[in-house]
Write a structure and sequence with these properties.
disordered N terminus; single chain; globular; 9-stranded mixed beta sheet; alpha+beta; 8-stranded mixed beta sheet; JmjC_dom; tRNA processing; 24 helices; methyltransferase
C-alpha cells in the first residue's frame, strides 16, 4: 500500500496538527485495504494450490473461505502477476546465461530485481523462490518489498519470527540502512519502508537492494492495486521514475472505467472505495486501456513496448491461461458467476511495459472495432421504480399473463418473475407486477394458496406455449446440482403441474417456443460438471424428443441466446442461436441455416424424428464478421424476434470486453447467411441505468416493447447492485441520418405504469389434490356457495381469573366484554394522545402504498415521524400504521407501555380477571392505524388485543389452516389477502373465524392462530396488545426475541433436522430422493394429525 497524501517539500510550511492527523488517518485507511486482500489471497492459496507451500497463512490469523466469485477473481489477479514475474525471471536467467557464454566471464551478469510497490503482506517473493528456484538462481534474483514504514515494520517482525519465511533467506541482516529505508536485507530479499513520493529515499533503498549501481540490474516494478490510492500526479512520477533506472519492466494492475462511472459496477466500485476512505485517484484520469497505454508512453516507456489487457482479456489470452487451466478451476469449486466475473474483470487492467532492454515490440490484445456503421438510437425507455427491496431477484425467469374476461370483468395484465436468487438465498416465490396501478391486485393466483410447484432454483427457463401453458424447464440449486424436473403453469387456473422431465439435468440452457405450435426447442445448457450439446424438442404429450442434427453439430455450450423468427404450416421453424460459454470462454458461434432466412432450422413435420440444421452466419460487406460477432456473441443475454426477420438482443457479457451503454440493446436482422446490425439503443441519461445481468425479460404482444424486471450483480467484494424497478423499452425504428443519433419519443408518462403488486410464495411439491376448476367451473361453484364457512367468534364475560384460565385451556379465540381497562377507553382521543406522548416524540411508522399491507412483498416503507404529524395524518385517512417499539433499545428489548409511554400507562390497566396475563407478561404494545389492513400472520405467544378507540374487523384461522394460506417455511407472515378471497373457492378448504371489536372489547388470540384485521368506521384504530407466555419457558427459543414472535425452540431445531435429513438424500438420483422425501413427509403429516 502507498501513501496517498502529498509530502512536504523543502521550504513548504510545516503541516498543521489537524492536517497531520488527517494524513495519518488516510494512511491507516489505505493500509487497511491490505487486510481484505490478503485474506482473499489466503483463500485462493489454500483452495487452489494445495500442493504448494503456503505463505499467506503466516499473515492471516484465521482462514476465511471466500465466495467462488472472489476466489476466481483473486486467482486471476495472482495468475497474471505471477506469469509476468515468472517470464521476467526466466528471461533474466536466459539473458544472463547468454552473456556468460558470449563474454566468457569477462562481463558480470545483471541481477534481476523485483520491486513490489505497495507490497502490503503479499507473499510474492517466497512464492517465486519456491515455484521458480532455477530461474531465481540463474537470474541472481532479489525481491524488494516497499510500503509504509509502519506496515513494513510489522511485516519485518513476521518474517523474522516465522521459520517458513526466514528459512529461505541467506545472509540475513536485520538492520541495514535506515537512511535509505532499508530495514531488512538478505541475499534474496530486501524490505524498504518509505513514502513512494519520496523518490530520493526510494532510489537509495533500491541502490542498497541492488548491491551497487541501478544500471547494473534489470528491474521489474510491480504495483498491484496500490499506486491508484496516490494522487495521480504522484503516481505518474513513480511510473516515470521506474523508466529512468535503466533496463526495467513495469507491471501495473488497477481499476479502470471502461464504460464510464455511470456503469452500475463502476458506480458500486467507486462508492465502495470512497466509503472506505480510500478513493481511487487515477481511475478518472485513466479510465480505459487506451488511456493507460498513453499514460505509460508519456511517462518514459516506449509506446511499442507497452501492452495493456483487461483481466477479462487476460482470461482468454494463451499467455496467461490454457483451456485446460480454465477447466481445472471448476474441479476446485463449481462456478457459475460468469456475468459477474466478466464485469469485474473488465473493470481491472494489467499494464506490462519495458524500457532499456532488448526485444521486439510487444503484441497487444486484439482491439475490437468501435466504429461499426450502425445507427445509434436514443432509447425510448420508461422506468417504474419499486419501493425498497421489492422485486429484487436475479437469475429468475419471467412470464406474461394477458388479461382476459373473468368473473368480475376484464382481468389485468400481469408479469410474474418466478423463483431465482434473492438478497440472501434462492427464493421460493414469484414477484407479481401489475400494469395499471392497483388493478393488478385483483389477480389472485391459486399458486399462492395450494401445494404443487417447483422447488427453489435459478438459471431455469420459462417458455410460453400458448394454450398449453408456460413451460418451466430445469435450473439449478448450486452450480453442481442441476435439476431436470419440468413444470407447466396453467394460465387459466394459475396453478403448476409437473410435466415430462428433461432427459438429463440442465441449467443455463436456451429455450424458445416454436411459433404457436405448442412446441419448444431447447439447445445446450450445463449439466452437473460440463456443458451440453443438447438439441431437444418438447411436446406437451410426448415429452422431450432428441433432434437429429443434419450436418455440423454446434459445440457444447451454455448460457446462449436463442429465438424463433419464423415458422410455416409445414412444421419448419427457423431462428437464431448466438453465444454461450465453451471451455470457459464466450463462444464464437452465430449459427444459422446458410441459405435460409435465419440462424437455425428445425423440421418437426415428423414429430417422432425432428431434424435440426445449423449453419454459421457471417457479417455483411459493410459490417465485417468480426465486428458483428463481438457485439452478438454473448453469454447471459436474452433474445426476442421482432418480425420481418429482425431480432433484439439484450444484456449479457461478451468475450473480452465490456458491453457498453450503446451496445447493451442491439437490433439485428438475418437474411440468407448474412447477419446485419440494424441499430443500437442507447440508455437515456435521465433513466437509472440497469445492470443487464441475471435479468428477466418479456416482449409485449405488439412485438414493439420489451419489459425488463429483476437483475443485477454481485460487484465482486464491493457490494451488490440490484435493478430497482421495471424498464419498458420501446423498439420502434427512428433512425437518424447517416448513423446519427435521433431521439425516440418517450414512452408515455400517462400510460399505465408497472407496479410491483405483491410477492407470492410457491409451495413446492406435487399436487396433493385435483387441479382447480376452470374459470367457468369456478363461476358455477361460486354461485353454488363453494366458499369458506365463516364461524363467529363467541363473546363472553368474565367474573374471575379462573374464568380466563378455563378459556386458556380451551385454546379457542373469544371476545371478552365488560372488562374495566381504565380511563383509556374514554380519554384516548388523538389530541389527548399528542398532549400526553409529546408532539415531537419520534416514532417509526409503516407508510403503506395501498390499503392491503403485505409483509412478504414489503409494499410499505418505514418512516420516522413526529407523533403529532403521525396522529394528524392518520386522522385525515392516510395509510399509516404504528406498532410501538421499545423507546430505549428498540432492537434489543420488547415494547412495554409502562416504560415506553409512561404518561399513558396509568390510563390503561389489566383487570383482575386477566391476572394470568399480568403474571406472565412479555410485552404490551401500543398500536394505532389509519385505513390499512394488517397482513396475515401468526403470533407464537398468546395475547389479548384490547381495543381502545375505533373498531376493527378481525379474521382468524386455526393453526391447521397454515398449509392452505401460503406460509413459506420459517415465515410467520403470508402475502395472501384473505379479505378479498372469502367468497372465492380458493379459501373453501379453510376455516375462518370472525369478530368485530369495538372500544372496550378484548380479543383473546391463542398462540399460532393466523389472523389479520381491517379497520371499519373511518376512525383511527387505537389498541394495546398484551403478549404473555402460556407455555413453560423451556419451550421458547433462547436468545433475543424483540417482537415475541420467534418460533418455538422445537420448530427451530426441527428445521435444522429437516435440512440435515434432506442433505443425507442429496447424493441419490433425483427420482429416488423425491420418492423417499415425500414418504417421510407423509409420516410427518400422519404424526401431526395423530400426535
Amino acid at each position: 500500500m502507498t501513501r496517498p497524501s502529498k509530502s512536504s517539500g523543502p521550504g513548504d510550511p510545516a503541516p498543521s496538527k489537524s492536517a497531520q492527523q488527517a494524513k495519518k488517518l488516510q494512511d491507516d485507511q489505505v493500509m487497511s485495504t491490505n487486510n481484505s486482500s490478503i485474506v482473499s489471497k489466503r483463500s485462493v492459496e489454500k483452495l487452489y494450490h494445495p500442493g504448494e507451500a503456503h505463505y499467506f497463512r503466516h499473515f492471516v490469523r484465521k482462514f476465511q473461505r471466500r465466495a467462488p466469485l472472489i476466489n476466481r477473481g483473486y486467482w486471476l489477479r495472482m495468475r497474471v502477476v505471477d506469469t509476468l514475474v515468472r517470464d521476467f525471471l526466466r528471461g533474466s536467467a536466459s539473458r544472463a546465461t547468454e552473456r556468460e557464454n558470449a563474454a566468457a566471464g569477462r562481463e558480470s551478469k545483471k541481477r534481476a530485481v523485483v520491486v513490489n510497490l505497495g507490497c502490503g503482506s503479499d507473499a510474492l517473493p517466497w512464492q517465486c523462490l519456491a515455484r521458480y528456484p532455477e530461474s531465481c538462481a540463474g537470474a541472481n534474483a532479489r525481491f524488494v518489498d516497499v510500503d509504509f514504514p509502519d506496515l513494513i515494520a510489522r511485516k519485518r517482525e513476521t518474517v523474522l519470527n516465522t521459520p517458513d519465511l526466514r528459512g529461505p533467506l541467506t545472509g540475513l541482516k536485520e538492520s541495514v540502512s535506515p537512511g535509505a529505508g532499508v530495514v531488512l536485507e538478505s541475499d534474496q530479499y530486501v524490505q524498504v519502508g518509505c513514502d513512494l513520493r519520496d523518490l530520493k529515499t526510494l532510489r537509495r533503498g533500491l541502490e542498497v537492494a541492488a548491491g551497487g549501481r541501478l544500471e547494473e540490474c534489470r528491474f521489474l516494478f510491480v504495483a498491484e492495486v496500490s499506486i491508484t490510492y496516490m494522487e495521480t500526479a504522484a503516481a505518474d512520477e513513480v511510473i516515470r521514475f521506474a523508466s529512468t533506472v535503466g533496463d526495467a519492466e513495469f507491471v501495473l494492475l488497477e481499476q479502470i472505467l471502461p464504460d464510464g462511472p455511470s456503469h452500475p459496477f463502476a458506480a458500486t466500485m467507486l462508492s465502495h472505495f470512497t466509503k472506505l476512505g480510500t478513493p481511487l485517484k487515477s481511475v478518472d484520469v485513466y479510465p480505459t486501456v487506451d488511456d493507460q497505454h498513453a499514460r505509460f508512453a508519456s511517462c518514459g516507456w516506449p509506446a511499442d513496448q507497452v501492452c495493456v489487457w483487461t483481466l477479462w482479456q487476460a482470461w482468454a489470452d494463451a499467455r496467461f491461461l490454457q483451456p485446460a487451466d480454465r477447466t481445472e478451476l471448476d474441479k476446485v469449486e463449481p462456478f457459475d458467476e460468469w456475468e459477474e466475473f466478466a464485469i469485474f474483470a473488465c473493470h481491472y487492467c494489467v499494464v506490462h511495459a519495458r524500457v532499456g532492454g532488448e526485444g521486439q515490440a510487444m503484441a497487444s490484445p486484439t482491439k475490437r472495432e468501435s466504429s461499426i456503421p450502425v445507427p445509434i438510437q436514443a432509447g425510448a425507455v420508461r422506468f417504474d421504480e419499486c419501493q425498497g427491496q421489492r422485486g429484487q431477484r436475479r437469475f429468475a425467469a419471467a412470464m406474461r399473463l394477458d388479461g382476459g374476461e373473468g368473473t368480475t370483468g376484464r382481468q389485468p395484465t400481469v408479469l410474474l418473475n418466478v423463483l431465482g436468487l434473492g438478497t440472501k438465498s434462492r427464493l421460493q416465490s414469484c414477484d407479481v407486477f401489475g400494469l395499471g396501478g392497483e388493478a393488478a391486485g385483483d389477480w389472485q393466483p391459486a399458486a399462492a394458496l395450494r401445494e404443487g410447484g417447483p422447488t427453489p432454483r435459478m438459471c431455469h427457463t420459462l417458455t410460453d406455449l400458448g394454450k398449453h401453458g408456460v413451460l418451466l424447464a430445469g435450473g439449478r440449486e448450486s452450480p453442481s446440482s442441476p435439476f431436470k424436473d419440468c413444470w407447466l403453469f396453467d394460465k387459466e387456473t394459475s396453478s403448476w403441474r409437473r410435466t415430462h422431465d428433461l432427459p438429463v439435468p440442465l441449467y443455463r440452457h436456451a429455450a424458445t417456443a416454436l411459433g404457436d405450435s405448442g412446441l419448444a426447442l431447447l439447445l445446450g445448457g450445463r449439466g452437473k460438471s460440463e456443458a451440453s450439446d443438447a438439441c431437444l424438442l418438447y411436446h406437451p404429450e410426448a415429452g422431450w424428443i432428441e433432434c437429429d442434427v443434419a450436418g455440423a453439430r454446434p459445440p457444447a455450450a451454455y448460457g446462449a441466446a436463442v429465438a424463433c423468427g419464423s415458422g410455416s404450416d409445414g412444421g419448419v421453424y427457423s431462428g437464431i442461436l448466438t453465444g454461450g460459454i465453451t471451455d470457459g470462454l464466450v463462444s464464437d458461434r452465430i449459427l444459422g441455416p446458410g441459405d435460409r432466412i435465419v440462424g437455425w432450422e428445425v423440421d418437426v413435420s415428423d414429430i417422432k424424428k425432428p431434424t435440426i440444421t445449423f449453419t454459421k452466419l457471417k457479417g455483411s460487406s459493410e459490417q465485417p464478421s468480426l465486428a458483428v460477432e463481438w457485439l452478438l456473441k454473448r453469454f447471459g443475454a436474452t433474445c426476442f424476434p421482432l418480425g420481418n426477420h429482425e431480432f433484439v438482443l439484450l444484456g449479457g457479457v461478451t468475450r473480452d470486453t465490456i458491453v457498453g451503454h450503446q451496445d447493451e440493446i442491439i437490433i439485428f436482422s438475418v437474411a440468407g447467411d448474412e447477419v446485419r446490425l440494424v441499430r443500437r439503443l442507447e440508455w437515456p441519461a435521465e433513466i437509472p441505468r440497469p445492470l443487464l445481468a441475471g435479468h428477466s425479460a418479456v416482449i409485449l404482444p405488439d412485438s414493439n416493447s420489451v419489459v425488463i424486471v429483476g437483475g443485477g450483480a454481485t460487484c465482486f467484494s464491493m457490494g451488490t447492485h440490484w435493478n430497482k424497478g421495471v424498464y419498458t423499452i420501446r423498439l420502434q425504428d427512428r433512425l437518424g441520418v447517416d448513423g446519427e443519433k435521433e431521439a425516440a419519443p418517450a414512452v408515455s408518462a400517462v400510460s399505465p405504469r408497472w407496479v410491483h403488486q405483491k410477492t407470492i410464495d410457491i409451495l413446492p411439491g406435487e399436487k396433493s389434490f385435483p387441479p382447480l376448476p376452470t374459470t367457468a367451473a369456478r363461476t358455477a361453484l361460486a354461485d353454488g356457495g363453494s366458499s369458506a364457512e365463516m364461524t363467529p367468534i363467541p363473546r363472553v364475560k368474565l367474573d374471575s381469573a379462573d374464568d380466563f384460565e378455563r378459556i386458556l385451556r380451551a385454546d379457542r379465540p373469544v371476545v371478552i366484554e365488560g372488562l374495566n381497562l381504565g380511563s383509556c377507553v374514554s380519554a384516548w382521543t388523538l389530541d389527548y394522545l399528542v398532549d400526553k406522548v409529546g408532539a415531537d416524540r419520534k416514532v417509526v411508522i409503516h407508510e403503506a402504498a395501498s390499503q392491503v399491507m403485505d409483509f412478504t412483498s414489503k409494499n410499505f416503507k418505514y418512516v420516522t415521524a413526529e407523533f403529532e404529524e403521525f396522529a394528524r395524518r392518520a386522522g385525515r385517512g392516510d395509510r399509516l400504521y404504528l406498532r410501538a417499539l421499545s423507546r430505549d433499545k428498540p432492537s434489543e428489548k420488547p415494547a412495554l407501555l409502562a416504560d415506553d409511554f409512561p404518561t399513558l400507562a396509568e390510563d390503561f390497566v389489566l383487570p383482575p380477571q386477566l391476572a394470568f396475563v399480568k403474571e406472565k407478561l412479555f410485552s404490551s404494545v401500543l398500536r394505532m392505524s389509519g385505513p390499512v389492513n394488517m397482513w396475515l400472520h401468526y403470533d407464537v405467544m398468546a395475547n389479548v388485543y384490547c381495543q381502545i378507540g375505533g373498531s376493527k374487523r378481525m379474521l382468524l384461522f386455526p393453526p391447521s389452516d397454515v398449509e392452505r394460506l401460503s406460509f413459506a417455511p420459517g415465515a410467520s407472515s403470508s402475502g395472501v389477502d384473505v379479505f378479498s378471497l372469502l367468497d372465492k373457492p380458493e379459501l373453501a378448504r379453510t376455516h375462518p373465524h370472525e369478530a368485530v371489536v369495538s372500544p372496550g372489547d378484548v380479543l383473546f388470540l391463542p398462540r399460532l392462530w393466523l389472523h389479520t384485521a381491517t379497520p371499519i368506521g373511518g376512525d383511527v384504530s387505537i389498541a394495546v396488545n398484551v403478549f404473555f407466555r402460556d407455555l413453560d419457558n423451556a419451550h421458547y427459543a433462547s436468545g433475543r426475541d424483540v417482537y415475541g414472535n420467534r418460533d418455538l425452540a422445537a420448530y427451530e431445531k426441527g428445521r435444522q433436522d429437516v435440512a440435515r435429513i434432506a442433505n443425507s438424500f442429496k447424493k441419490l438420483p433425483a427420482e429416488a430422493r423425491e420418492f423417499y422425501l415425500l414418504r417421510l413427509a407423509d409420516e410427518l403429516r400422519e404424526r401431526a394429525r395423530t400426535g
